[in-house]
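Person: At home tonight, work slowly through the protein below, taking as long as you need, and write a paragraph about the fold.
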Amino acid sequence: MTKAQNFGLGTALITPFRKDGSIDFKTLSNQVEEQIAGNVDYLVALGTTSEAATLTQDERIAVVNLIIEVNNGRKPILLGVGGNNTRAVVEEIHKVSNEIWGILSVVPYYNKPSQKGIYEHFKMVAMATAKPIVLYNVPGRTAKNMTAETTLELASDFQNIIGIKEASGDMVQIMEIIRRKPDGFQVISGDDALTMPLIAAGATGVISVVSNAYPVAFSEMVHLSLEGDFKKARRIHNLLLPFISAIFEDGNPAGVKAAMEFMGRGMSNVRLPLVKVQKSTSAKLRLLVEELKEQL
């Protein structure tokens, strides 16, 4: 994967847990194999969907090492390394394995920095490594939006800041980044439901939750969209849209884990403070999974 390539589909991998809360490494291994077989373009380790915030440092290392081992160089791996302590983020980046292709780094949360503070944070991140860096803007989780101006300034000033996962949900802001971005800068959807319209507007892919459950179908939708075949892509988009809405009703990744349990691909366990989906959501997901068996 190079700066000039469309990123396509990257799956933000879940972390499977057993009933006792321990990590189910066998299921995680199977999940990596399923994603590769499902034609995803790259893997995202320790993203939001992995529940990385609830993993110990030793567990995070073990998860990443397992993904690297099973992947065996077949797909690029983007690793989530972010936080609200710039110095600690930089130190963590210095420890990243050579097997990791690039870094996904979230806007600092809780501290609510100014746009200048966000710029200076990512300046330090960019200077800490030669690896490609993908910024991650998700104000619903960080309580702070990184504006189009800040994103574009970072994209212009640092050669290794090669893209952004935009999960603001603000279509105008995202399209403004697409309109003014430097050549080769990747704008990646952070919302499964907005992937097809954003690709139509000029985005180059998605970092996805739904592809944990449906890698083949979602990969096909993404690649058809990138090829400009929106008639065929729209069919898959419309089939998956109710499922996408349902998996986020009670939070991520509780929804997608519940669906995958119905598929026989792991258990729906999450770690506190997250809890399993409500019975009503569970029933809805079970029905949607059954319907999609016939439709996809």
